[in-house]
Amino acid sequence: MNLIENLKWRYATKAYNNIKVTEEKVDQILEAINLSASSCGLQSYRIFVVSNPEIQKKLGADSYNGQISSCSHLLVFAALTDMSPTYIDDYMTMTEKQRGLDAGALSGFRNGLHSYFSTINAEQKAHWAAKQAYIALGTALIAAAELKVDATPIEGFNAANIDAVLGLKEKGLHSTVILALGYRDSEKDYMAATKKVRLPIDEMITKVY
Ligand SMILES: Cc1cc2nc3c(=O)[nH]c(=O)nc-3n(C[C@H](O)[C@H](O)[C@H](O)COP(=O)(O)O)c2cc1C
Q1: 196 lines ligand 1 (CB under 6 A)
Q2: Which residue ranges does the record assign to the Nitroreductase domain (predicted)?
Q3: Ligand 1 nearest atom to the CA of residue 63, by list position
Q4: Could you tell me if the CB of 153 is within 6 A of ligand 1?
Q5: pLDDT tens digit string along 99-110?
Q6: Which of 189, 187, 168, 159 is nearest to 66 (CA)?
């Protein structure tokens, strides 16, 4: 399967050259993200795409990950800080419209969501939202590999700094994880020729048939 070959090809790139990823490929990765599964389908995160050396430099301040400033495009996965009743209502209304349903057709689902989110605290809601963003991160990694675009998932960044530079707090969002996209600089990147390490498949997987 080509997918497996592409997943073997990908690795968390440490050094990027200065070749830009085409907008067409970036858009395909972004569309893959938008097609990700998410709990209850609520897509509780937004993506910010940055391709501007000055802004990338600011986003990478205080981070040991030079990829933030040297990559072609940086994707910031920003989770909703609050799963508010308004957000849920708007999402249900959008779902009814896109599926051609009568207004209120999803009121049972809507009420169930209101009820669930009223039982968990603010920290739990933010955590729930962030978990969905990580699923999108996984989708983006696979999409990038399929397009032979290099990528680095990054947790080593100053979230308060990124939130401030992109004005995320004011938008009810907070950065959870980021993804650098670009093309590997095989000469500068010691990881480019380093063997991928994974568990033996039978240690990872238990089949119960
Ligand atoms: C959520 C997450 C956060 C990560 N944070 C960083 C990071 O801050 N810097 C970095 O160079 N790599 C980071 N990585 C890359 C991992 O170290 C890498 O995926 C792992 O060692 C497996 O290697 P491979 O992806 O090259 O196959 C992160 C990976 C994930 C999934």
Answers
A1: yes
A2: 7-183
A3: 8
A4: yes
A5: 999 999 999 999
A6: 189
